[in-house]
Write a structure and sequence with these properties.
By secondary structure, the chain is an alpha/beta fold. 34% of the residues lie in helices and 19% in strands. The chain has two domains: 144 residues, 3-Layer(aba) Sandwich (Leucine Aminopeptidase, subunit E, domain 1), CATH 3.40.220; 317 residues, 3-Layer(aba) Sandwich (Aminopeptidase), CATH 3.40.630.10. It has 13 helices and 20 strands. The longest helix has 22 residues.
Length: 476
């Protein structure tokens, strides 16, 4: 399901065409050309839930009215509008309506939030279905006095980036191994204008990326290391922002094999950080953001095989650190460590890594937020503000030195796992070892994949982190 099937435009006239299937009134003030009759107003006033939208049938048209409680905090109001937009999309698809108008007044940010929820709520992954059962409307017209078209175009670009990342996460390993993932990045680079360089196995061996090579040893498919770069003519940042995405295209756990139910069975999603990284660079390039951004994606699958790495092995990382492997299912931190070490060559302003790194992260925050750690409080605070605004919220955890004590090894510089307690932080402490620059770690294990639909976040891959980082880059 792709947004390019829709014609999305901003309308500036003060009337609606007669062939419009649905009109929406999301604003805090009355839209001049849409009025409610007395019975309709009575229905609106007597709705069961204060924040609930209502659907008024004016067959063959529908009027969808949404006006949440405007006394709530600003970010919560915007989120209510996003969720209302998702409900609106369900109505559109259920009734196979072809032409839609979103009409608003008052604060234009609410109309944008509503439209965002509407667009994101339209996603479904039907590539392998014999019969495609759902479709998007042919046209969506946005009416809001004073709303700038550039904002709408940016929203459309961002939604397309999220759709692409969701597709990548939902794609099975049989069609998306490390090589295919790199090809996806190349294709999107050609479309949007960012540059792409793919390092193959010989290159990775020359770079001595021991973490990536070790995890790949059990696979019949070679690893890749992809560098994506968007550098506009006059970027606002003298040093680049580097985004690193974990690209484990499938994770069996290796020799430390995972159980299947609700564990290995959805591990095609273990490259969600890589998908988000590519999507952020793609969106930045498409939107022509004046920010220098580099994306790094180490990619491989993690399987048990005759030559697979095993607990007890000692590997040498890109930066020369030796690591005693005590669990082959703690593989994401190994490939990320090589990429974080490589990021030093760019003398970065900031490095942000995204990874479905620890199951413990989802125990902490569930699907309601991602986990963050880092050594740069100013940027992390900015990121948290951005997260509240677009409702990809962040729970910050400390990187106290005590958490690193359990990473000590008797025979190497460090181990790849620590004690049982504090596993999410210990994984962060492991990554911290490979950084000597401003750095933030985002563990998206709880938000990257959902087992049930949650409003505009679909079942399966969600595209977690893309809207957050795009918003952050915009504000630089």
């Amino acid at each position: 399901m792709h947004l390019d099937t829709m014609n999305i435009r901003l309308k500036t006239t003060d009337h609606l065409s007669e062939n419009v299937s649905i009109a929406l009134l999301p604003g805090g003030e009355e839209v001049p050309f849409i009025t409610l009759s007395e019975p309709e107003m009575e229905l609106w006033k007597n709705r069961h839930e204060k924040d609930a939208p209502i659907v008024i049938q004016r067959l063959p048209h529908y009027l969808f009215v949404s006006l949440p409680d405007l006394q709530a905090p600003e970010h919560q109001i915007s989120e209510k509008y996003r969720k209302a937009g998702s409900i609106f999309m369900e109505l559109v698809r259920k009734n196979k309506l072809e032409n839609v108008v979103i009409a608003g007044s008052g604060n234009p940010e609410y109309t944008i939030a509503f439209t965002e929820g509407f667009l994101l709520g339209g996603y479904s992954f039907q590539k392998y279905k014999k019969e495609k059962t759902e479709s998007l409307p042919e046209s969506v017209t946005i009416f809001h006095p004073g709303l700038e078209e550039s904002i709408l175009r940016e929203l459309e670009i961002l939604a397309e980036a999220v759709y692409w990342a969701r597709d990548l996460v939902n794609e099975p390993l049989s069609t998306l191994n490390a090589l295919a993932l790199a090809d996806q990045f190349i294709q999107k680079g050609k479309e949007s204008g960012y540059s792409v360089e793919v390092f193959h196995k010989n290159d990775i061996e020359s770079l001595k990326m021991g973490g990536l090579l070790a995890v790949n040893k059990g696979s019949i498919d070679p690893p890749t290391f992809t560098v994506m770069e968007w550098k506009p003519e006059s970027p606002v940042n003298g040093k680049p922002v580097v985004i690193v995405g974990k690209g484990v295209v499938y994770d069996t756990g290796g020799m430390s094999l995972k159980p299947t139910p609700k564990s290995m069975d959805y591990m095609k999603c273990d490259m969600a950080g890589a998908a988000a990284t590519g999507a952020v660079v793609y969106a930045a390039a498409r939107a022509n953001l004046p920010v220098h951004v580099i994306g790094l994606v180490p990619a491989t699958d993690n399987r048990p095989d005759g030559n697979a790495y095993v607990p007890g092995d000692v590997i040498t990382m890109y930066d020369g650190t030796t690591v005693e492997v005590l669990n082959t299912d703690a593989e994401g931190r190994l490939i990320l460590a090589d990429a974080l070490g490589y990021a030093k060559k760019y003398d970065p302003m900031l490095v942000i890594d995204l990874a479905t790194l620890t199951g413990a992260a989802s125990i902490i925050s569930g699907s309601h937020g991602m986990i963050a750690m880092g050594n740069q409080s100013e940027y992390l605070n900015q990121l948290k503000v951005c997260g509240d605004e677009i409702y990809e919220r962040i729970v910050e955890l400390p990187l106290w030195e005590e958490y690193g004590f359990t990473l000590k090894s008797d025979i190497a510089d460090m181990t790849n796992i620590g004690g049982r307690d504090g596993q999410t932080i210990i994984a962060g402490k492991f990554l911290e070892h490979f950084t000597d620059y401003p750095w933030i770690h985002l563990d998206i294990a709880g938000t990257a994949w959902l087992f049930e639909k949650d409003s505009y976040r679909p079942k399966g891959g969600t595209g977690s982190g893309i809207r957050l980082l795009f918003n952050f880059l915009k504000k630089l």
